[in-house]
Design goal:
10 helices; alpha/beta; 8-stranded mixed β-sheet; two-stranded parallel ribbon
Length: about 300
């Protein structure tokens, strides 16, 4: 008898962390859970975790995966609406319109899975749990990486990326009684392996990185970049360092049953054209971690 048949319909609260394009690994984790017969009853996510989790709750994850796996770097570039004002280099409206056209829209309270998107109210300095209203308004708020995506004004609040305060939002899932709490952390310790290729081999290599640097330079009055790094890269490295510390704290407090950790050097935050390998990495890592969980029972400490 296979392991899948031994653990049918075990219910899961799934926590999906922030991390830009690395969050595509969440798709692979969800695929592995479903292939083994686990039933996802609750999802909470920050940033890319909110996007993937919300689309899964909507029932359109396969459509989204098919679309994102077909994107080239040039396609990603065309989805971005550049801006020199509004609090971010990218407005984000074009991307959200594309997702609505591709997947449809729903209110969160109508979803078949309990779902929470986490954002941060920058005026009040506290996290916000979005559990009703427009799904894509909640997603748009949660993915608003400071200085990269413009903040999202919603219900009288100015909202930004939930990972700023809570990169792995376990607490919202505690309202739902399930057998297991599983966290997917896509800002895990660096690994010697990476899905990144040599960008110099691609005709459009580094296009988005160069454009980010160009847009930044327009507002820098000729100031030089630090050690050849674009401002966006410095910002993202700083955010990832902060989020790693916050993640360790949250996992120590809530002690989930399983942590699926994706290395932070898997890909850069903007490399959505690497969707296929990142999704597969998520599934392979989940496969290994679930084997350990099923063989040894509750995992204890996540690290």
């Amino acid at each position: 008898m296979t392991r899948q048949r031994e653990t049918p319909d075990r219910t899961v609260s799934l926590v999906l962390g922030s991390g830009g394009a690395r969050g595509l690994a969440h798709i692979g984790v969800i695929r592995e859970l479903e292939a083994r017969g686990y039933a996802i009853r609750a999802i909470a996510g920050s940033s890319m975790g909110a996007l993937v989790g919300g689309i899964h709750a909507l029932g359109e994850l396969q459509a989204y995966a098919d679309w994102v796996e077909g994107l080239s770097q040039a396609d990603v570039f065309r989805l971005l609406d550049w801006s020199l004002s509004g609090g971010g280099m990218i407005r984000g409206d074009r991307l959200i319109r594309k997702l609505k056209d591709l997947l449809g829209e729903s209110d969160i309270e109508d979803l078949p899975i309990s779902y929470t998107a986490v954002a941060v109210d920058i005026d009040r300095g506290r996290e916000v749990w979005m559990t009703d209203g427009s799904l894509f308004d909640a997603i748009r708020a949660s993915i608003a990486i400071p200085a990269i995506f413009a903040p999202h004004r919603y219900r009288g609040r100015t909202l930004v990326d939930g990972g700023l305060l809570n990169p792995v939002p376990v607490a919202p899932t505690l309202r739902t009684l399930t057998d297991l709490t599983i966290v997917v952390d896509v800002n895990g310790p660096a690994s010697g392996d990476s899905v990144r290729e040599n960008e110099d081999k691609d005709d459009d290599a580094g296009m988005l990185r160069r454009m980010l640097g160009y847009v930044e330079s327009l507002g820098m009055n000729g100031a030089q970049e630090a050690e050849g790094l674009a401002l966006s890269e410095v910002l993202m490295c700083s955010l990832e360092t902060m989020q790693s510390a916050l993640t360790r704290h949250h996992l120590a407090v809530f002690r989930p049953d399983l942590v699926v950790s994706i290395p932070k050097n898997t890909c850069m935050f903007h490399e959505f054209h690497r969707a296929g390998p990142v999704i597969q990495l998520g599934r392979d890592t989940a496969h290994s971690r679930l084997n350990e969980l099923e063989e040894h029972g509750r995992s204890g400490t996540p690290y």
